[in-house]
Amino acid sequence: MKNTGLSVKNVVAIGIGSAIYVILARFTSIPTPIPNTNIELVFPFLALFAAIYGAKVGFIVGFIGHALSDFIMYGQTWWSWVLATAILGWIIGLAAKQLDLKNGIFGLKQTIIFNIVQIIANIIAWVVVAPIGDIIIYSEPANKVFVQGISATLSNGLTIMIVGTLLLKAYADTKIKKGSLRKED
Amino acid sequence: MHDESQILGYQPGNSFIYQLNATTKLVFMLLVSIACMITYDTRFLIAICVLSIFLFKEAKIKWSQISFIVKLIVAFMILNLIFVFIFQPSYGESIYYSKSILIHAGYFTLTLQEVFYLFNLFLKYVCSIPIVLLFLLTTNPSQFAASLNKIGISYKISYAVSLALRYIPDIQNSYWDISAAQQARGIELSKKASLGKRIKGTLNIIMPLIFSSLERIDAISTAMQLRRFGSKKKRTWYVTQSFKKEDYLVMIAAVILVLIVIVLWQLNHGRFYNPFI
Q: What is the pTM of this model?
């Protein structure tokens, strides 16, 4: 099993994760007073999934989830943004080892690491990958796609910072802490 | 059920397109959408538009099955075109190296070239939509996974995609169940509530949804492990179909379309077709 890459658990996590992604992308986008800006609660979910299952799963869930939800909702997909979502999941997933969520520890140090990583991931995804993809694939004007990218970075970064941190904390609390069991004397 | 009709999915039928192999449809869809992604040649895009509308008629899909999605796309498209225009009204001139003004308005001066560019952008977005919709409406999800595997994607990823398609309706049901339960407990989720309250309320749905799904992942992966999933390099699919003559013809047609795009690239010296020079 090791030589073929993904474990069974990862395959299932990708499948179910993508399904949750599609549902959250469809139903939990909350409009804000600022026109054309929605709070997308799907990104904190992706951050949680990447932090639990690692970079590979983060990347593939982002990719399949976003592509499927675009196809199912619009019958069309914007590959540049799909790739950007995948990269976001991948970068956050890289921090999974440092975060060590499975041992139930999510204190101040982990909160800071998580947020630094997610902000970097957001910047790379929405200000670098998505706009460049839009320019190459669709030849849209550069200033338009970069403004879009920056506004996506701000709204998604903030959403992940607040909701994502909450989700990770809640997940860590469900796990048994490392070293919490003591041998009876 | 809530909004259930607003998610596209497989709908059984028996026209010509249903009889094609899922792999054929996938290859055709991918090649055509790549072709449309590359080129900005107006003639090609219009031809694809006509073709996809024709295919749509052939498949005998009812307007009511797709009307909501078409409306959504058109609204999105118009918004997008407006943004493209506002940010750089002079973009058309720089692409087509010429300028014929239609309306004088300072920064927002509208040129024929800009209109032509926006028209092309519009065509590019819409021309492949009917084909993708057709694919979604006429392809059985399990066959879709099998066909992904056939075009060279690893079977684990293909299986993950088929799991996703299999579980979307289930998770959608859990979502609405949890939502109803939370609303019964007095959580306001409608537009009347303030933004903060709505986010909090939605979180109250998402949390149980995610945590119950994590348990589901454990259960399913244990079951699959017990059945020795992933122990071999290959696997076969229950729903695999063999290729017929029509399948080869359709695939050849798709390859020809891609070749046309390459020829047009040579003729136009780039991706844009320029009628102004």
A: 0.84
